[in-house]
Amino acid sequence: MAHPNEFGFGTQIRKSPYFDATVRWGARAFSVYNHMYIPRDFGDPVENFWNLVNDAILCDVAVERQVEVTGPDAARFVQMLTPRDLANLSVGQCKYILITNADGGVLNDPVLLRLGENHFWISIADSDVLLWAQGVCVHSGMNVAIREPDVSPLQLQGPKSGDVMKALFGEGISDLRYYWLRELDLDGIPLIVSRTGWSSELGYEIYLRDGSRGNGLWEKIMAAGIRCGLKPGHTSTIRRIEGGMLSYHADMDINTNPYELGMDRLVNLDMKADFIGKEALQRIRDNGITRKQVGLQIDGIPLTGPNTSFWPINFDGETVGKVTSAVYSPRLEQNIALAMLSVGCAETGSQVEVVMPHGTAHATIVEKPFFDPKKNLAVA
Q: If DSSP codes are grouped into helix, strand and coil, which group holds residue 6?
């Protein structure tokens, strides 16, 4: 077993409350996300994928830092950050949102949790939304407080995750609806539990509200889940690409707008409320986009791992886009990818060439997601 001190990026990178537990349970490598260690390797990534889709895995995702917004103007302030209409967001409900800048570019794609009438958590992907929100607040004239609370999520994901949750919290947890949350405790450990996750499978996120209890929480969940086949794991690149789930900095960034991503449903330009980027997104909608995200099936031998650089895409001898995320799916027995392409070359069924480090391969533009397009597994 590796010793925790064998992993070192320096003291500027924070460790989660579960760090020692993940090393004890077999974490072999970490990367950095939101200035914090995140486990990326518990062994064979294909085995991790099958553990997820057949049973359940527990993942340390404390890197999903929470930006907490409270105060009398909290609801109005949070609405200003996102083009998604939050008028009908109830207390106890979650929504997937985009945060946009003045040019309509995507700064983050978090899950928003409403814990109270004037109490929100923005559960962020990998970018500094805390600093953005605090900067926006300075001249907003709104009465809000913005901080990072002592909150560290775990993801319990997979078809047997519901059985593990019932073992932990009783049968009553079964009626927690998709994209809703509940305040709970586990033997005195304070938690928020939501029916959300980054896996495209049935799953839960368990938000620890006391970082000193991380080791105990991890062990309690693993002990309850062993008989259900629960394994320690990491977020599965294979499954998230199958499900068409986006990774910030890979599949989108500050120069990407919601229309290019096909996320029109997350933009409401007709609502009365104002939000940052509204005028820019109106122009983009009216003028149309020049590129769009598509799915690809790439011919050739199975990829040995995900891409670590953007692969150029050529059509008729010209570069027309790039592969943003690619992997081999053992379930589909196919190399699959998410890509950003010029709209003139993005018709489903079209053939393109992908320039990979080991050579060029033919690829076909296909519909995405690649598996379970209606997300029946996640909603079940």
A: helix
Residue 173 in any domain: the answer is yes
What's the domain count of the chain? 2
* Residue-number span of the structural domain to which 334 is assigned: 290-380
Q: Which amino acid is at 55?
A: D
Q: Which of 214, 241, 268 is the last residue of a domain?
A: 241
Work out the mean pLDDT of the chain and round it to a whole number.
97
Q: Does 187 have pLDDT greater than 90?
A: yes
b vs e for 20-52, b when ≥16 Cβ sit within 10 Å of the residue's Cβ? bbbbbbebeebeebbebbbbbebeebeebbbbb
pTM of the model: 0.96
Written as one string, the DSSP assignment of 230-288 is EEEE---HHHHHHTT---BTTTB-TT--TTTTT-GGG--TTSSS--TTHHHHHHHHHH-
CATH code, domain with 334:
2.40.30.110
Backbone angles phi, psi at 311, to 5 degrees: -95, 125
Residue 211 confidence (pLDDT): 98
Burial classification of residue 162, based on how many CB atoms lie within 10 Å of its CB (0-12 exposed, 13-18 middle, 19 or more buried):
buried
Between the alpha carbon of residue 159 and those of residues 55, 164, 332, 348, the distances in Å are 6, 10, 19, 31
Asked whether residue 314 falls in the same domain as residue 171, the answer is: no
